[in-house]
Amino acid sequence: MALRRIVRAVAQRDVVLSLAGGGGWLQGIVFYAVFVAFMAFAFGPGEDALRRAAAPTIWLATLFAIQLAASEMFIEDIQDGSLQTLAVEQTSLLGYVIGKLAGVLIIVGGPLIVAAPIVSIMFAVGATNLAILLPSVAMGALALSLAACVASAINAALQGGGRFTAILAAPLSIPVLIFGIDATSLAIESSQIWSVEMQFLTAMTLFLMAIVPGFSVLALRLGLE
Amino acid sequence: MAEFFAMGGYGFHVWTCWGLSGILLGGLGIARERRLRRTAKLAKQHDERAKREEPNP
Amino acid sequence: MLSYFSNPARFEAFARWASPLALLVLFGCLAFGIPMGLYFSPEDYQQGHTVRIMYVHVPAAIMAELVFGFIALMSLTAFVWRHTLADACARAAAGPGAIFAALTLITGSVWGRPTWGTWWVWDARLTSMLILFLTYIGYIAVWQMGTDENKSARLARIVGLVGFINVPIVKFSVDWWNTLHQPASLLRADGPTIHSSMLWPLGLMALAYIALFSWFVLSGVRTSIYEKQIARRAQPLASRPIKPEQMAAGDQNG
Q1: C216/B29 CB distance under 8 A
Q2: Which of A222, A215, A217, A181 is nearest to A198 (CA)?
């Protein structure tokens, strides 16, 4: 099977399962909404404080929602044997990993990206064009999913039950957060889309794209032994 | 002597740093040495028992 | 040279004289380094006696970084040439590395109290050391969590390599973040001006730390060799793999 068809089949299966199985996609967005509300209570209703907290809130909510979803992205497939079947059939595991990533991005990332402008309205951001923060948030969702993906693959191979994904993903996520929060803040405050921070965020994302799929496949193969 | 331990008023800071370094590194060193001796002894016991049980090759 | 040490028996023979040598260097350096650092070296004209913290802080910081490089190198060696002893080396290095990183954070913080006026400042170097410490914890967790040692070893290689590639990225991002968000702090711990009377104890302590680390690795690897021997003896005869001695006999050019 061609790589593209595997990617599509895996992503499609995950999306359909989460829509039909009632909850996969809801879990992420509900968590996101609750987290954002808590942050608003934490910072108080004052507009200045809220405005400063807008970008960090969006980013932390995205980080946690993605990690929540991604920490278990491979475990089920290993436990129910479907990954084993794919490996036995000589299906490209690279295609499988990319498909899984696409699935997470559609199921969890998609709703979060849509929700980001709504959060910025609630956090008293005065920008006229709220779509301006979308590129940085979308890029961030991709980078954070990649970081969580390799951590989740290692964790699944260890059969550790999803407890170590966060600590394994943290060193990779921190640079993403640093550049991402600044990129979003700049987009909100001074309408800069292609700022230096955004360029670094893009570079970090490309770097993760280069290394994560290969290492994830390696870890998953070990997990299957 | 008291002057030496006072470290110009910074005795607490200096001695905490040196003390903790010594305790943590020394502690790990002692733990490793003890573990090495224990496993070496155990390996030797296993070895001797194996030799007694299968004197063939 | 790499394949020379991949034989456990030869490593054992090497460790038998290298371990005491490492201890000799360690105690030799400490015998001069400690009195020089604590008593004979001058106090800094700006920082007074707190400068003596430097003699345990800077070597720990250097080692924390070097050790992760060592882990990555061993991971790569294990990855490419499949030397099982390289995995054992990386494993033996992780614990000391984490302690070096923790000591850097603790001594940096205690040094920061009189220097910066607070226990913790999100100084660029302390922050990236904190992230390096997290990386160590993740690496150790992979070894601790797994039930199958072979599997853990191979997964740990991935964590070691990815973690190492990530170190410069973290450094760069934290520097960026720090200079952007934190205007120049009151007093930098950058450099108490180092003159030669301070360089001597610093060099001796650094050498002592390197010797200590070497000893940690040697003893850790020896322990894991013994552990493997015990595990092999505990197996029933039929499923027993070929002994390393037999492997060595057939592998003359190795």
Answers
A1: yes
A2: A181
Lowest mean pLDDT among B41-50, C45-54, C65-74: C45-54
DSSP chain C: -TTGGGSHHHHHHHHHHHHHHHHHHHHHHHHHHHHIIIIISPPBTTTBGGGGGHHHHHHHHHHHHHHHHHHHHHHHHHHHH--HHHHHHHHHHHHHHHHHHHHHHHHHHHHHHHHHSSS----HHHHHHHHHHHHHHHHHHHHHH-SSHHHHHHHHHHHHHHHHHHHHHHHHHHHHHHHHHS---SS--S-PPP-HHHHHHHHHHHHHHHHHHHHHHHHHHHHHHHHHHHHHHHS-GGGPPPPHHHHHHH-TT-
Shortest distance between the Cα of A153 and any Cα of chain C, in A, equals 10
CA atoms of C201 and C36, how far apart (whole Å): 6
3-state secondary structure of A171: helix
Q: Distance from A171 to chain C by nearest Cα, in Å?
A: 6
Residues C5-37: tens digit of each pLDDT: 667 888 888 998 999 999 999 999 999 999 999
Does residue A170 contact residue A148 with C-beta atoms inside 8 Å?
no
B5 belongs to a structural domain: no
Cα separations in angstroms, A192 against A160, A161, B22: 43, 42, 52
Query: How much is the CA Rg of chain C, to the nearest whole Å?
Result: 21
Q: Which of C191, C22, C100 is nearest to B20 (CA)?
A: C100
Query: Beta-carbon neighbour count of residue C150 at 10 Å?
Result: 12
How many domains is chain A built from?
1
Is residue B26 situated within a structural domain? yes
B3 has pLDDT over 90:
no
Mean pLDDT, rounded, of chain A: 89
- C173:A164 CB<8 A: no
Interface residues on A facing C, Cβ-Cβ cutoff 8 A: 150, 154, 157-160, 163-164, 167-168, 170-172, 174-175, 178-179, 182, 200, 204, 207, 211, 215, 218-219, 222-223, 225
The string of DSSP letters for A92-156 reads -HHHHHHHHHHHHIIIIIHHHHHHHHHHHHHTT---S-GGGGHHHHHHHHHHHHHHHHHHHHHHH
Domain around B25 = 12-52
Residue C182 confidence class, pLDDT cut points 50, 70, 90: low
Measured CA to CA, the distance from residue B46 to residue B48 in angstroms comes to: 6
The pLDDT value recorded for residue C2 is 59
A65 vs A30: CA distance, rounded Å: 9
Q: How many domains does chain B have?
A: 1
Domain residues for the domain of A124 are: 3-224
What is the predicted pLDDT for the residue at C62?
A: 94
